[in-house]
């Protein structure tokens, strides 16, 4: 006789069971704030889990909110901490702090990965430690805190979690040098930069491309050419961190 098919668990039930299977108290202790179970469950639901179980909502809308609150909080913190620094310094400081890698570092510090609800595919391919998933979920959790508690408590959480990064933000990294050294390690040709300017002369915005072996690997913008090139180099550096195989090795 053919084997009877197992009844598939409804999506809502699967979500409730997966969420209840993990003790989220340690995470809430790290955050230092209470979050309603429904809001926290949504913040931790990655799209891979939602898609695997039908049409469940995922955390991307909360991520959208958290990204905005995080960006504003970090920008204002840097504005107050470095009153003599120009915008051309503050922008790369903020970009470094709220980058995928900066967010992922914070996520690992608070043990966020163990709490994320993932689909089987992401689970088996190390999704709990992927920078992109950790970063997005961090923003979603911040979005959940904001929706429940408002701006000031969320700001306090952010300043506590990102305090060290804000304190050390005065160190401006030379991304062009970092990129050139990384490309050399991989055997590629030195990066080449192109830049264009748009807008009236007193309000020009420069857009730069970081070209490696003739292909753009990073785009950056700024109110001067130097800043735009640094931002392009930064984007290219992190692109190569994820995709080192894209560098065509020099032939001996």
Any overview of this molecule?
The protein is built from 13 helices and 3 strands; from the N terminus they run ααααααααααααβββα. The protein is globular. The protein folds into 2 domains: 11-168, Ribonuclease iii, N-terminal Endonuclease Domain, Chain A (Orthogonal Bundle); 175-246, Double Stranded RNA Binding Domain. 57% of the residues lie in helices and 9% in strands. It has 252 residues and is mainly α. The protein has a 3-stranded antiparallel β-sheet with strand order 1-2-3, with helices on one face.
Keywords:
252 residues; mainly alpha; Ribonuclease iii, N-terminal Endonuclease Domain, Chain A; Double Stranded RNA Binding Domain; 2 domains; three-stranded antiparallel sheet; 13 helices; 57% helix; globular
Q: How does the overall form come out from the CA principal axes? A: globular
CATH-assigned fold name of the largest domain: Ribonuclease iii, N-terminal Endonuclease Domain, Chain A
Model regions low in confidence, pLDDT < 50 over at least 5 residues: none
- What is the alpha-carbon Rg in Å? 21 Å
> What number is the mean pLDDT?
89
Strand order of the largest sheet: 1-2-3
Q: Give the helix level as a range of percent.
A: 55-70%
SS-derived structural category:
mainly alpha
Q: CATH class of the largest domain, please?
A: Mainly Alpha
What's the count of strands? Answer: 3
Assembly category: single chain
Total tally of structural domains: 2
Distance between the termini: 65 Å
Order of helices and strands: HHHHHHHHHHHHEEEH
Q: Give me the CATH superfamily of the largest domain.
A: Ribonuclease III domain
Tell me about the largest β-sheet: 3 strands, antiparallel
CATH architecture of the largest domain: Orthogonal Bundle
Number of alpha- plus pi-helical segments = 13
